[in-house]
Amino acid sequence: MGDEPLVRAVSLEKWFGPTHAVRGVNLDVRAGEIVGLLGPNGAGKTTTLRMLSAVLTPSAGTAFIAGSCVATHPLGVRRAIGFLTGGTALYVRLTPREILRYFGRLYDCPPDTIEERSAVLIRDLSMTGFADRPCGTLSTGQRQRANIARALIHDPPVLVFDEPTLGLDIAGARFILDFLHGARARRKAILFSSHTIGDIEALCDRIAILCTGRIATLAPRTEILAQTGKATLAEAFLSIVDAFEKDGQPSGVPAELN
Fold this sequence. Notes:
Blueprint: E1 7-16, E2 19-29, E3 33-38, H1 45-52, E4 60-65, E5 68-69, H2 74-80, E6 81-85, H3 96-106, H4 111-124, H5 140-152, E7 158-162, H6 170-185, E8 189-193, H7 197-203, E9 206-211, E10 214-219, H8 221-228, H9 233-247
Parallel strand pairs: 3-8, 3-9, 6-7, 7-8
Antiparallel strand pairs: 1-2, 1-4, 4-5, 9-10
């Protein structure tokens, strides 16, 4: 992995009125690495990812994506990132191929590059059979493949996937996970959020467990198990969350990891 992280969050904070949703998050992701975000509902995962993607402006702190600051250079961030959520909608009257052309133009990609990239993505994501059908006629899994292609049309170095397997069947979810394995091999820096612990275990080099807007621990799975003395990641996760929600410091997890 490279020396400099492609994703770096420094003391990231977000307030929504009186609600302190994200509290001093520090995080980094390097090229060729997948970092997973795991946490209960309301822990701040999606808010953190949206700040890193320049969808939301931080209330305090800062973050950099491939050298661009989310606060001062959001356009540079958006050019460097492929952002996908489980609920991302597509234009139902457009075909996947038309959507790729549209978003390619939004990213100022040259026309020849758009056509070349579209052909590669349609092939690699097994979209040939439905690339020219309106998105409103596609299955959930087909729409999610089209969404992945949309997020990749500008070939970004950073991928942020927030619950990308939500609503997919087993085959669709497996396709997403296999794709992310391949993206890591191509040296993408990947942030991956999921409520499915099995997906996190299968994919992630390091795991950040968020509780009440803070990172309770950020470490490889084996270290989290050793820190908590638990046999499974599910047991370790519940132990960390329970301890953190009680006193703000999970037992068995060194303070320097917070």
